[in-house]
Structures are given as C-alpha cells and as structure tokens.
Amino acid sequence: MINAKILDNAMNILKEFPLCDHCFGRLFARLGKGVNNADRGYSIKLLLTMISHLMLKDDESKDLAIDNLKVLASNGFFKPAQDLLKHIGCDFQSVKECFICKNIFENLDEYVKRILPILNEYDFNTFLIGTKIPADFLEREDIVRSHIGVDVGESLKSELNRLIGKKLQVIIGKKVSFDDPDIVIIVDIENFNISINPKPVFIYGRYKKLVRGIPQTTWFCSNCWGKGCPQCNYTGKRYSTSISELIIGPILNATNGVEGIFHGAGREDVDTLTLGNGRPFIVEIKDPKRRNVDLAYLEKAINDNAKGMIEVKLIRFSNRKEVRKLKTLSAFSRKVYQALIEVDGELDENSLKKLEEYFFNREIRQYTPLRVLHRRANKIRVKKVYSVKTELIDSRRFKATIECQGGLYVKELISGDNNRTIPNFSQILQLKARCVELSIIFVSEEI
C-alpha cells in the first residue's frame, strides 16, 4: 500500500540523511492541510517511533526496532526516540546538523532582527520575502527528494520565504502580497545579509512646454557624449536642461529614489511648444525609500523649480501597465498642432480652401525625415491627417490647425522633405512651404 511505502521510504531516508523536522516534513508538504512542515516532520517521526516501540514487543523484530530507534534518535534528532532508547538501556550516536539546511531554521528570528532596522528607512504597505540560498543547499535537497519515490514535497526556498514572512508580518503589522508588493526583502541565507528591492513609484501627469529650445529628455554633447568638454562648457549636455530633468529632480528628492525614468506619450521637437491640455507622461522612480508622497506638494515644487519653462499637472499614481499603454497609444492617438507656415510665392483664400479640402481624412505616406535619419531607422510610416483648418495672415504666411494621427512628422507634412512625405502642403499649394513655428495644442489619450 502507498501509505506503508511512504513510511518505509521515510525511514530509509532517515537512515541515509540526518534531517531536522522542517526538512523531513517538507518532503511530504502536500499531504495534509493546516499543518506546518515542522509539525508534519515531528508527527512522522513520532509515528515511526511508535511503530518501532510496538516492534520491541516482538522478539523477531526487536533488533530492527532498536536499529530504527537509533536512526530516529541520531539522524532524526528525535527526543522521544532518544528517551525510549535510554529507558531500555541502549546507547545511540548523536548527530548535530541537518544534512539539507545545516540547522538554518534555528536562526530565523535572527534574520528577522536584521530586517527590522532596515525597514525603518522605507515607506511601504505590503511586502514579500525572497531568499537567496546557496546552490549546495539546493543540491542536497534534490539528493534527498530523489529518494522519496513520490513528489509531494515543497522547496526549501518556499518554506523559508513563508516562515520569515509570517514572523515579520506579526511584528510589523504589514500585509504580505504575492502579486504586487511595495517592497521585496531579500534574505541572503549564507552571508546573513539583507537587501530591499522596492517596487518603482509611477506618477502620471501632463506637462505644458511654455518656451522653445528645451528638449524632452537630456541631449548629450555630440562631441564628448556626456563626459564634459570645452564645447559643452564641461556639462556633458547640448542643452542646459530638459523637461524630464525639470520634472524628475523634485520627485527624486521627495521619494529619495535612486533613478528617475521619463516615459512620454511621444515627444515634440526642441523648438516646438506644447500647450492646450499638455502631453501625458509617466515618471518612474527606481528604488524609492518614500512612496507615500503628496502629489499636490510635488506639483508645486516642480512648477516653482521650472520657473515658467514648463507647467506640470500631476494627476495620480500609476503603474507599469499604464506605461505600456501610454507608449502604445502615443503612436496612434490624435494630436492637434498649430503651425505658422511661410511659402515662396503668393497665397490666396482659394489656395487654402483647396488645402483644407484635400487633407480631410487623407492618408500620408512618410519616410523617416532627413533631419532625424542619422539617429532613426529609415522606414515608411502610414499616418492619417483628419483635418486642416487655415487662416490667411498675408500673401506669404498662414496659420494651419492640423488634426492628425500620432507619430506624423508635421514639419515634413508641410515641406514635403524632398518628397519623402507624400502628399504634402508644398505639393498641393504648388509653392515651397516651410514651418516657421509649431505648437501642439491637444494630445488625446485615445486612438
């Protein structure tokens, strides 16, 4: 019968390997509910001791019973077996260390004591324990598990994670989260070291860019690539600041994070303004020690620090899923631009009306613009212009409000970029056209 086979296997395993109650019980972890591994291991050893005690009453099995009790007393560290052997006047050899874990379960309270002062540096509501276990521990566990015959066990790593987590949970009153913990506490079992891996903080907002000449992200000096040289006045940067730096700096200070990453819903050219409802963005802060920050306070700090260059609205805390959504939708979501356009020749109202009619729901085929070809792949993009509204200023200048699909290069829509963008304003007007000023006045979050 399978139950007899399991007991025989359990006894045979103890004959080969000294095992503590945790490691012995863990071999049968999936048998029974509501019992921890230490109690399970103790119970199996107790049952084997009781069976051996019963065998003592049979002269034919007495020697085997004593041998089994000696195994339980030595390799099982089992006091009831030790007491029984002493009672019948039999000696046994003492073994001090578990073959698998080297008695690390005796030190769990010490690991918790080391964790507690480190946690004082972090804001968090939920946590998860992870353990770093030496390879030789796992190899020894695999050796023992290969002798059990049936796979009903649990891993050493899993049990350590659970037990340390339970002990810590009682002391700090915080909840364990397996799906999305605020921090992961890594316990290095061999070196007795503790490290904390906080979940990044994500903050969703919108920014308006109110002055021209600021890039969205840091542009490194093309001469030294960030190292610092006379050409960049040893700053390592082509521009003194960027939108991402203006936003990330105060957030890093507030969260005491290590690094900030700026995720924008697309980007505008350095000389382009972003007005209207602003451009959506998400800031990701890595390794934050403080996560329960006041967004209203942060928003004011960013805007005060920006001194009129940008204006930010921080809307809510976010997550990585929303970052992916932001990146995906930015290439397709509707955007509205306002452009000041100059032409080489004479304009009239009829020409502009023709332009408006032609670019109503018009598909555009656009190769990567020549001005960015040095840093982006040369590929064709198929985008949509939904509408164009114009306002004549004089015979050579007009304003255009262009509603289009995200990812369309609007300056090249106007100029044609040596016919790399077809159709284009220059082609339809039959006049060479160029964008003098460009502003974004609306960015949608939907396609």
N-to-C order of helices and strands? HHHHHHEHHEEEEHEEHEHEHEEEHEHE
- Look at the helices and sheets and give the structural class: alpha+beta
Shape: elongated
What's the pLDDT, averaged over the residues?
Answer: 93
Q: Stretches where pLDDT falls below 50 for ≥5 residues?
A: none
Summary tags:
25% strand, 4-stranded mixed β-sheet, 10-stranded mixed β-sheet, alpha+beta, 14 strands, elongated, 447 residues, 14 helices
Describe the structure.
Helices cover 36% and strands 25% of the residues. By secondary structure, the chain is of the alpha+beta class. Strands 5, 6, 7, 8, 9, 10, 11, 12, 13 and 14 form a ten-stranded mixed β-sheet that branches. The chain has a four-stranded mixed β-sheet with strand order 2-1-3-4. Strand 6 (259-264) and strand 7 (273-286) form a beta hairpin. The protein is elongated.
Topology of this protein?
Blueprint: H1 2-16, H2 21-26, H3 37-55, H4 62-74, H5 79-87, H6 108-119, E1 126-132, H7 135-145, H8 156-172, E2 175-176, E3 183-188, E4 193-198, E5 201-209, H9 243-255, E6 259-264, E7 273-286, H10 295-306, E8 310-317, H11 320-330, E9 334-344, H12 349-358, E10 362-367, E11 380-394, E12 397-405, H13 410-415, E13 421-422, H14 425-429, E14 432-443
Parallel strand pairs: 1-2, 1-3, 7-14
Antiparallel strand pairs: 3-4, 5-7, 5-8, 6-7, 9-12, 9-14, 10-11, 10-13, 11-12
